[in-house]
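Incident log entry.

Two folding requests arrived from the same account within the same minute. Monitoring flagged them as a possible duplicate submission, but the sequences differ. Recording both here for audit purposes.

Request one:
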Amino acid sequence: MLNFSKFFKKVTAKNINSDLLFLSEHLSHKGNQEILFVEYFDEIVLDYSLESLKSFEKYLSKIKIYFQSKIDTKMNDSEKNEFITQFVSIILRIGAYVGETLRENDKIVDWYWIMSKEKCISNPILINSENAKIQKAPVLTNGFKIIFPMDAVSDLILKPNYQLSLYDYANTLLLTNSQNRLD
């Protein structure tokens, strides 16, 4: 029997899946709307492998130092908006890359992106941005489980003692899916 709700989610997710893939491919985009320290990505291979997630460690350490220094300085409204734009751009692009890496490497279940208003409301960075009431945030689902790779990126940048790397985050999810399949 066809599960219509799962089928409908996959059909409506087609556009968001391609949008997030496109976003993940723009990590190294230079020019208008490039992310901070974009030159870092000239030196690494972004091939959606689990190993490629290890390449983000130095970059995120640098970003963490940068954002911590910005948080501690007084900013006018324009500077605050620029700060939020930079932060959201980084977590969305790297989070999209992490999600696409999961989609590429999970041989057990199919993951797809959906938009969630609830996730947007629960995220302090997104709720403080312009038009937060009408925004939705991308989440990754396999039809049974929902994850938000952008949180892993955000936590690495904002939480002082956060130890889980993006590689560990993705590998743990993939191992959990594999073990659940065997049970």
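Request two (distinct sequence, not a duplicate):
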Amino acid sequence: MTAPHPSAEELAPLVLPPLSFVVPEGFHSLPVDASADELPASTAEFVRGLYPSGDAELWGSATPYYERVATLLSTAGLLYSGLGIFGLGDEGVAHCSLSVAVCASHHADTESAAQGTLAVLSSDPLNDARWLELPCGPAISCVSMRELSVDAEKTESSEEQPRIITGQIQIYLPFPTGPYMAVFTLSTASMRCWGEFCDMLTAILQTVSFTDPGDSDDI
């Protein structure tokens, strides 16, 4: 079972306290923060980066699709959405998705927000929920696994239905600067690289900051 997602009513307003983080090379960031005028060009650049060996026909057909996806995700409250693609040499590639959403939490302090989130998530025995101490403050991680079946119509009746295991880790991170909760979600079907993806998310979380990057006092 996956952890709960913010409802439409809980989505944060457009003006938020500062939140910044750094993703490693290999991520292709969907332009969910682009304006309507910027979106076509930004999405075209995203598609060319995602499919560097493609051609004009592929890029032209994929760009409108990803424009719609970017628009949908931005209206759903996502601050960031990216696809990570990492080469494994002769073994192909590993891939994952990373999103960051912000919702209103109405907490008085980060400790109480994290404790309440841990209590809720821990009540479900299918959730592996744990307390984290990050440089930017307390957080809660929640790991879940899901088994997906391939459409039975695609296989012979005598064959066992193919199954895919996917993993998801969510990090609930209360803002120390306002009553909001950031939710980092990493999902992947490349389970052979699950440990590496968990380490990568841990590294991303070490870079999270709730201060304005333009603040002269921020080093």
